[in-house]
Specification:
Oligomer: single chain
Strand order of the largest sheet: 3-2-4-1-5-6-7
Helix content: 40-55%
Radius of gyration: 22 Å
CATH superfamily of the largest domain: P-loop containing nucleotide triphosphate hydrolases
Order of helices and strands: HHHHEHEHEHEEHHEHEHHHH
Length: 317
């Protein structure tokens, strides 16, 4: 490319390159948040593989925030983004909506709470739908992370609503996973029941200026070995300590932990694909009618690789 700046400007003038992924990637690398948004739309749709094929491998830091509704996750994330922007980092926020990105729920709330970053071209805020994918994250999140890495973002922050055992998949893609809670009788116990404490690398008691904060901290320390921090995200109190803890945890990451997260991602995505496999309904009907047992059906749906073909991935019904 003889003049990348001229080409990027031309793409902007032409409506950010239409829907040609290569043109959109060029525009996004030139700083177009709009082009990056269009690429994320393609990633969520049927052209995911087409976009991914154009990307070179790259790594990126991913920090996850989860916790029950009303804990102040979006406000905490907005404060954390401010801290990282002060370091000159480009940040993308993926807010995972358990229903639809067009419902206005997550997107509207996040934009209100992150108003300070709306006009910052170095911050991308995006709502993504789970679209029925189990585990609390969108099936497109791993692809979105890869895209953002290739577009030279420095950090991806993922927000997921942790409301049950199925909502803890965020730990498979993020390091660390930050669980945000609020003061209240029994909050730590409820979080433990929801499975959130099992995936927490860091625990944050937000709104710590409210009554009961000290008690919640004590309960959490009794229930979990993860570090427990306090914050009042609305005014920035405790955010520098949280950022320092996030950075310290990232530096302590290991190859084994990265492999474990990758394994969890693969298994989760494979599960989602199997749920839509065309043979599933036929096999389920056979099991229900007594013509087949579930063990045989499972083997037919997902045959194990053979010694002759260790990469076999075909499924026969």
């Amino acid at each position: 490319m003889e003049n990348p700046g001229r080409e990027v400007r031309a793409l902007h003038e032409a409506g950010v390159g239409g829907k040609n992924p290569a043109e959109l990637i060029a525009a996004a690398r030139g700083g177009s948040v709009r082009a990056a948004g269009r690429l994320l739309t393609l990633i969520e749709g049927e052209r995911r593989d087409e976009v991914l094929a154009l990307l070179e491998p790259a790594t990126i830091r991913v920090v996850g925030f989860t916790g029950p509704p009303g804990a102040g996750k979006s406000t905490t994330i907005a404060a954390v983004v401010t801290a990282y922007r002060s370091q000159g980092l480009r940040v993308a926020v993926l807010a995972v909506d358990p229903s639809s990105p067009y419902s206005g729920g997550a997107l509207l709330g996040d934009r209100i709470r992150m108003a300070a970053h709306i006009d910052d071209p170095q911050v991308l805020i995006r709502s993504m739908a789970t679209r029925g994918h189990l585990g609390g994250l969108s099936v497109a999140v791993p692809a979105a992370i890869r895209l953002l890495a290739a577009l030279s973002y420095d950090l991806v922050v993922i927000e997921s609503v942790g409301v049950g055992q199925s909502e803890i998949e965020i730990a498979a893609v993020a390091d660390p996973t930050v669980v945000v809670l609020t003061p209240g009788a029994g909050d730590a116990v409820q979080a433990a029941k929801a499975g959130l404490l099992e995936v927490a690398d860091l625990l944050v008691v937000n709104k710590a200026d409210r009554p009961g904060a000290d008690r919640t901290v004590r309960e959490l320390r009794a229930e979990s070995d993860a570090p427990v921090l306090t914050a009042v995200a609305a005014d920035g109190t405790g955010i520098p300590d949280l950022v320092a803890a996030v950075d310290a945890h990232h530096r302590a990451d290991t190859a084994d932990r990265r492999a474990a997260r990758a394994r969890s991602q693969i298994l989760s995505l494979a599960h989602s694909r199997l749920r839509t496999h065309p043979a599933l309904d036929t096999l389920a009907a056979a099991v229900a009618a007594g013509r087949c047992d579930p063990y045989t059906a499972a083997r037919r749906l997902l045959p194990l690789p053979t010694a002759a073909n260790p990469e076999e991935d075909s499924v026969t019904a």
